Each structure stands twice: as structure tokens, then as C-alpha cells.
Amino acid sequence: MIGTAALAVQVVGSNWPKPHYTLLITGLCRFQIVQVLKEKPYPVAEVEQLDRLEEFPNTCKTGEGLELSEQFYKYAVQLVEMLDMSVPAVAKLRRLLDSLPREALPDILTSIIRTSNKEKLQILDAVSLEERFKMTIPLLVRQIEGLKLLQKTRKHKQDDDKRVIAIRPIRRLTHIPGTLEDEDEDEDNDDIVMLEKKIRTSSMPEQAHKVCVKEMKRLKKMPQSMPEYALTRNYLELMVELPWNKSTTDRLDIRAARILLDNDHYAMEKLKKRVLEYLAVRQLKNNLKGPILCFVGPPGVGKTSVGRSVAKTLGREFHRIALGGVCDQSDIRGHRRTYVGSMPGRIINGLKTAGVNNPVFLLDEVDKLGKSLQGDPAAALLEVLDPEQNHNFTDHYLNVAFDLSQVLFIATANTTATIPPALLDRMEIIQVPGYTQEEKIEIAHRHLIPKQLEQHGLTPQQIQIPQVTTLDIITRYTREAGVRSLDRKLGAICRAVAVKVAEGQHKEAKLDRSDATEGEGCREHVLEDTKAESIGDTADLALPPEMPILIDFHALKDILGPPMYEMEVSERLSQPGVAIGLAWTPLGGEIMFVEASRMDGEGQLTLTGQLGDVMKESAHLAISWLRSNAKKYHLTNASGNFDLLDNTDIHLHFPAGAVTKDGPSAGVTIVTCLASLFSGRLVRSDVAMTGEITLRGLVLPVGGIKDKVLAAHRAGLKTVIVPQRNEKDLEEIPGNVRHDLRFVTASCLDEVLNAAFDGGFTVKTRPGLLNSKL
Predict the structure, then answer these.
(1) What is the C-alpha separation between 621 and 607, in angstroms, rounded?
(2) Does 545 show up as a binding residue in the annotation?
(3) Catalytic residue of the set 69, 665, 676, 679
(4) What is the pTM of this model?
(5) CATH number among 3.40.50.1820, 3.90.1170.50, 3.40.50.300, 1.10.1060.10, domain 254-431
(6) What would the CATH number be for the domain defined by 437-560?
(7) Which DSSP helix (H) or strand (E) runs through 506?
């Protein structure tokens, strides 16, 4: 085995992220391994030196060696002179050819010219100098021939380029076809001409037209190979495609609009009224700016579908922009064209998709915008949703103003709590509350059931769902403000019926084939056999079900399983220390149980149920108010002491502990719950309440009254206690709900306690004290 002894001249490298080094070495001589002494931790061997660069033999100075040396030198000089002598490395190599000994040239030239590793190893193995010259001369000749061919090819290409440059001006003047220009270049030039024509004939504003003309001049001077060429061309194509002055004509027939809205959506009177008002004003004034509406309500109440119906009513194009999770302002305003892969924002892109400058834009889930290092998209929307600014909206990609004043923006949200105040101020808030049970029944039979029948290939002759069954689904299998879960349950029923119908058709086909083979007289025999064998093969021989299939409560239980929600209110209020409150969530109103218990202790108050700081403060307020009024209401602890916390611990718990709860509206419920605990009396099982309290016993107004009242109505409660200053909010509640419920408006906790207990808040007193009724 032959190797090369070398000296490391320079070491360059790093240990991060992983060790890597580059060695600069210079060869000394060839050697041959005589014996390997050891292999670990690194190989050590006894070697024999084969040659030495400083002491060459005189074989190349006489005879055949001299002739080979001169021939090699001639080819080496010829090869170097074919290279570019202006390169410093090439000039240095030319000088080395004259200064170095001839014996060293084969090794040096072999490392420079293009050779394979196998050829280099063969030259390394050639210890004899004559053999080395014989092996390297063919490699030099091969490299010289390759350079000659390369130079010849470049010369022909330069001549062709000169002819093309000379012919192009002639083609422009005489329009002579059949030149050497590529077909792709012709097509590209045609596209540029068409793009320039579109720019001239477009109706874009003067400022945008000037920018397009300027960019077109730059595009013509730009080589197609430049990256900026494609970027500029895409920009011009977008500018041409934008609907600067293209718009649709609104349908302003108010009667037809009212009929269309009523057919598409049941209830939602506030929302329909606002749309009709816009149509009426639009009919009187043509240049009315588009309003910015925000529909706020729980999921599943139809906010998104209402936006689509508004566009259909107006006869406008509809475009939906989902903003949930967006955390980059460039999604709204676009990227600047200096970035690689830049593109316009969603607003400009939506206008391009709609093809008109007055579409209906639905900004879905505007309350779920994010915020990151890339900016705040909610702040970017301030310009879009401001009627005083959006007529001059500037996208970063376009860098010219676009008029958004004719666009009808409709935003949707589940809550306004997470919307920035500045953005909320720019929108007209329209509350879309949850549906009542009666409204859900109407929606189910007008819209949901026909839609599910069509999707599952069923007809009303095959399935019937009475209103009583629909009410059971609403009350026992769903508990929501919207109708999404109701729609899914109806879909499950239709799928189960579809299986029965498909099996029935298969069995009818089998019976028909039996009739055809055995004759009409054998029909009774077939049916008897069917009954006889039904135990062994029921699936194949059972008769098809009678049509239509009626869905009753028993069918519901078979298809949907046992009821998910049972009315447990009376069971949970069967002992003192339990009261029902009303809570508002982004999903609608909910009833909320509050439980309290007392035990011997050191006067500590324990709160559980994932409560927020505001609700914890309400609990401390409630216990403080009851302690200060314990003598007045004759409330005592287990030992008969008016100090309710004397040697007594109180534990307040809000069930559904996995759900975070906060807000001030549970104050009256906590007071009622603790009053029930200390008095030993039961709170009425049909009463729910809401309201904030003060340390002086006043009841302050709270929000979400309509959603809370609807939740109480869904739960089957009969009496709702609300703050007196919320009496104005009761007018928004549907008439049928107001008819089913009794409302008690309270301004202080005395009125709350009197309404929450049967016969008023009377307590059992100690002997010698009169019974009191408060």
C-alpha cells in the first residue's frame, strides 16, 4: 500500500454545531507500508520512503527520460497559455513551470487538471519517474483538446448573438417573420403588449395609472432573468385586475328584500330591521357609504348565514374573510414588494376575487384576532373599518390608495370583551341572542329538517318528525343558544332512517323476485316461511318497515340514546344551602348552581370552582353583609351565635369545576345560598336570579339579561329575579317567554330574599322572640 507523507500547514474549523475542520497540507514524499504496528486509538505503521522531492535521480536528464520530460513541458506550457493569463493563479502557475524542476511537474499538474480519483491514485502508485511521465502526458492532451472544443463553441455562440442583435431592429421596422427569436420570447412580448393595452384602457385613478406606466417602462428595460421581472409583472397584472370602478347595482325593492330575509331566517327582527333601513336610505341617496355592522352572539345562531343573505338581498357579491387566529398585520395590509414572496392583503385579494368594488365583506370571528411580533391585525383593521378613512385605504403591496367606502363590511363575534375598544368604536353592534324553544322548533321545521332530508336522499313520505319530538330533542338532547347541535341530532335521525329505508328496498326487491318465480298464489306461503325463519335469519327475511317512519320518543331513545339533559333543578334544591344563579358565556346564557356548607372550624371561607377575582370578591361581600345583618334576620351559626363565622368554616362551591367562572352577577345568588344555609330553609326550586351587590345591600344592574332569561326558560324555571335597573332590558325578551316567566325586579337584598323563599324570608326564632317576616 502506497501513500503520501504530508505536512499540515493550516487548520481551520469549529466545534459548533458539530466538529468540522479543514486542513491545508503540503506533500513531502511517497511511502510504502511495511508493517502495521497498531490500529487503536489511531493507526501506527512502519513505512519505507520511496522517493524524495529534494533528491531526484538523474533519469530525466538522459535518454528516454529527457525526451519525455521535454514533451511533458511542452504540453504543460500549451495548456497554461490557453487559460486566462489575467487570473493571478494562472500567471503564478506559468512562472512555476519555468522555476520548478521538471521532475516535480507531473504531480503538480495532475492535481490541477480534471482527472478522476482512480487516475490520481494510479499516478500516485507510479514510483518510476518515466512511468509517471507516460501516464500524465495523455491526461494533459485530453485537457487541451477539451479546452479547444470549449473555445470553439464559445466563438460560435458569440457570432450567433451578434447576428440576432443585428436582425432584431430589422424585425421591428419591417415585421418580417421567421427570425431566430425563441417562441417563448414572442409569447412573452405579446403578453407585455396586451398588459400595456389593458393599462391604457383601464379605468383606474390617475395616481394608480401613473404608477402602472412607470412600472411598465421599468419592465420593458428589465431582462427576463431578473427576479424583479416576475414581481413587477405580477404587480401590474394585479393592478389591471382590480375592480377600480366596476360595481353591481343594488336591488332596492324593500318588500322583496323583507320576503327574502323572512324566508331565509326566522326571528332576528333587530337584524332584519337594520338591513331594511339601509336599503331604504340607499334608495333615497345613491352615494351612501357602506355601514360597518358587527353581529355579536353565541355560536350557531346564524350570524354568518345572515351576512350571505344580506348580499343575496342586495344583489351584491359576497366574500368571507376568516380572521380567527390571524396574528400578522400583513394579512390585512399586505407585504411590501421589497420582500421575497410578497402578496397583497386579504382585503385587496378579496376585492380581486369578488370582481366588484362594492361587495359584502364578512369579517368572521373578529373577536379572535391574535397579536404577535409581526404586528397587531386589529390595529390594521382600524383604517379598513373607519368610514372616514377607508375611502383612501393603502395596501402595502399596492402602495396606492383604493376606495373601500362602497364595501358593506359585516363583522361577526361571540363577545365584545376581546375586541379592542378603538376597533369596537368603529362598528355598529347588533346583538344576535340565542333562540327560544318555540323559535328553535320553527327553525327546525322550516329549514333544518328539509335540509337534512335533501342531504340524505329522503322524502317527507318516508320520515315524519312531529313538533313534540323536536321539542324533546331541544330540551333533552341539546342545551345551546344556537341550533348546531339540533342540526346534528336531526342528521343522526335521518341517517338511521336512511338505513331502514335502504334495507326495506332491498327486502322488497327480494320479495318481488320470489313472487316472480313462484307465482302470485305462493305469496302467502312465502310470508309464512318468512315468519317461520325470522328467528334464524331476521336480517334477510323481515318485511320492510311501513312508510312513513314516525319518530317518537321511543325512536329517539333508540337512535340518540338516553336523554343527555334531565331537569335536575328540584332534586338539587332539596336541601338548604343551594341556589340557582344565571350566568352569561360567549356560547349564550347558562343556569349556575351555587352550593354552600358549614362545619366546625376557625372562621375561614373556602371558595372552589375555578372562580375569578371578581367572583371571589362577591363571595366576601355576601358573607360580610350577612354577618352585619345577622341579628336583623336572626341568622345564627350551629352554636346559636349571631357571629356566623365563630368557630365555623364555610365552603362555597360552584359546580362544573373545570369551567372558569368570573363576574359580579353572582352576588345575589351567593347571598341567597348563604341565607338558606344559616336559616335552614329551602330556596324555591323554580327561581333563578342575577345581580351585583354592594356592601350596603343594594342590587346593581348587570349585562346579558336576555341570554340569561332565555337560559332560565330553557331550564323550565318560572321566576327570574333581576335588578330593578335592568327592567328596561326585559322589553327585548320575546313575548312568549315573558308570558311563561314571572319577573321580580329588586333594588335591594331584602326584596331578593323575599322573592327567593316561599312565604317571604321568615326564620324560626328562639323562644322569647317574635317571628318576623322581612
Answers:
(1) 13
(2) no
(3) 665
(4) 0.65
(5) 3.40.50.300
(6) 1.10.8.60
(7) helix 484-518
